[in-house]
Amino acid sequence: QVIVVESGGALVQPGGSLRLSCTQSGSRFNRCHKAWYRQAAAKQREWVSSIDDDGSTRYADSLKGRFTISEDKAKDTVYLQMNSLKPEDTATYYCNYCGNWGQGTQVTVSS
Question: DSSP label at 75?
């Protein structure tokens, strides 16, 4: 059984940084597409960023320059570095790792 677990969410002040992690277990297949999504309260889930097997990355236009996606294939883990956080970044962040979803990790940006 493949399990995907996100971690790293927290309460952070505006302007702060967080690094989210997403790790899969139960499979060693990691040559695939991975992506981060987020869902704020009362809003639809939106795509944030993705990384392909060749290492190419993409970002939502509104997040370019603040968020960075990366991965460590040896650890079956993908990361999302988030800088200069804003209150509007508050959401539950979800990872899709090779088509499998995690349960999400909460990021709250507030003073």
Answer: G
Q: How many other β-carbons are positioned within 10 Å of the β-carbon of residue 79?
A: 20
Please write the tens of the pLDDT for every residue from 24-65.
Answer: 998 888 888 999 999 999 999 999 999 999 999 999 998 878
Amino acid at 53: D
**What distance lies between CA 107 and its chain's CA centroid?**
11
For residue 96, which phi and psi values (nearest 5 degrees)? -115, 110
- Cβ atoms of residues 26 and 43 within 8 Å: no
DSSP 33-48: -EEEEEE-TTS--EEE
CB-CB contact of 72 with 55 (8 Å) = no
d(CA 3, CA 89): 26
